[in-house]
Design a protein that fits this description.
One of its GO terms (biological process) is methylglyoxal biosynthetic process. The protein is of the alpha/beta class and about 130 residues long. The chain is built from six helices and five strands, in the order βααβαβαβαβα. A five-stranded parallel beta sheet has the order 3-2-1-4-5, sandwiched between helices.
Amino acid sequence: MMNIALIAHDQKKEKLVEFTIAYEEILRKHTLFATGTTGKRIMNATTLQIHRFQSGPLGGDQQIGAKIANNEMDMVVFFRDPLTAQPHEPDVSALMRLCDVYHVPLATNMGTAEILLKGLQAGFVDWRKHH
């Protein structure tokens, strides 16, 4: 069982909800975390149980970053909106940097997220052994 963070910028929340609906059976087998509004929207659309942190601008990205730094997060799915300036962009950059530093797979779009979850479903979790 993996710890998976689910995050989305406002303009990408609906896409992340659609993603979690499509992959609900895979996600159900793992412990899920999300920033505030995103987690609420996913829980309203699915039967998934999600530990919700603060919203991203209020520190949720940093809370997930702390889990990464403490080796308590295995994967991050973060549907970013690259075309809209985000007021908390430094937090977003720090979260992405932590994923790189601690070798945590990070999907920032639907294509990459699908590949990661299909790999997870197939049992390809060896990256945790190399961490």
